[in-house]
Write a structure and sequence with these properties.
The chain contains eight helices and seven strands. It is an alpha/beta fold and 242 residues long. Strand 2 (97-102), helix 5 (105-114) and strand 3 (121-125) form a beta-alpha-beta unit. Residues 1-22 have low confidence and may be disordered.
């Protein structure tokens, strides 16, 4: 028995680790800012260790890393549904100005204090459907946002994003790929639109005067953003305003 345990210790340890990764993610426990929503927080400091992040943080970080590599230096960027704001700060390292907006007043109040020393970042407590920018942004970034709206409001939101972009401006966004309308998803209550795929995205963007420039995918196993993956859990899209 002892020999069996020794020989299988690593295997058992991996299985237990995998179980913990698939347990329900408590966003309030994992996010010190709270806010009762799907807001991932990453503490930005010199000791940042990607390997120590949980699976949600890794995916989230890679999306903002992708966005930062996609934008041009000194752009004016919107980070809409900015959550805990760390992504806005990452983008601000390359952009000349970043406007981050989120619905939760508590979270916005705290990140205004946390990042008050960044002079080129403005955080707003705002419902995205009430944004009224016109021809202002070079790029708008909005990760894990569309699925939180009903489809009629997704169409409205994309029009708002399009209006906020300059001509040939870009929208960089992500959303779950073909997420099922399961009992578990409905119970959590965060998501309102399901089964989002490339066809729906293309239709919604066309209505808003935009077109797909690039589609990539991501999953919780590799975290990297690729042109093709055998297991697709997220769509990452770059669209351009016509």
């Amino acid at each position: 028995m002892l020999t069996f345990l020794k020989n299988n210790f690593r295997k058992i340890k991996r299985l237990l680790s995998k179980k913990n990764e698939t347990e329900a993610y408590d966003f309030n426990k994992s996010n010190p800012l709270g806010g009762n929503g799907e807001r991932v927080d990453i503490q930005l400091n010199g000791n940042l260790d990607f390997g120590q992040m949980d699976v949600y943080q890794k995916n989230h970080w890679k999306r903002y890393e992708f966005a930062k590599n996609t934008i041009e230096p000194n752009e004016i960027c919107g980070d809409f549904a900015c959550g805990t704001g760390y992504g806005s700060i990452l983008i601000a390292d390359k952009a000349s100005e970043v406007v981050g907006a989120d619905l939760n007043a508590e979270v916005i109040g705290k990140i205004k204090e946390r990042y008050s020393h960044f002079s080129n970042v403005l955080f707003l407590n705002e419902n995205l459907l009430n944004l009224s920018y016109n021809n202002y942004f070079d790029t708008i970034i909005s990760f894990e946002t569309l699925e939180h709206f009903y489809e009629t409001d997704i169409r409205k939101l994309l029009h708002i994003f399009s209006n906020g972009l300059k001509k040939n401006g870009r929208l960089i966004f992500s959303t779950p790929f073909m997420q099922e309308q399961s009992k578990e998803a409905m119970k959590m209550g965060f998501h309102l639109t399901f089964y989002i795929n490339e066809s729906k995205i293309s239709e919604w963007l066309a209505e808003a005067g935009m077109e797909i420039e690039l589609i990539k995918y991501q999953n919780y196993e590799t975290h990297t953003i690729e042109v093709d993956l055998s297991k697709k859990e997220f769509i990452i899209c770059v669209a351009k305003k016509k």
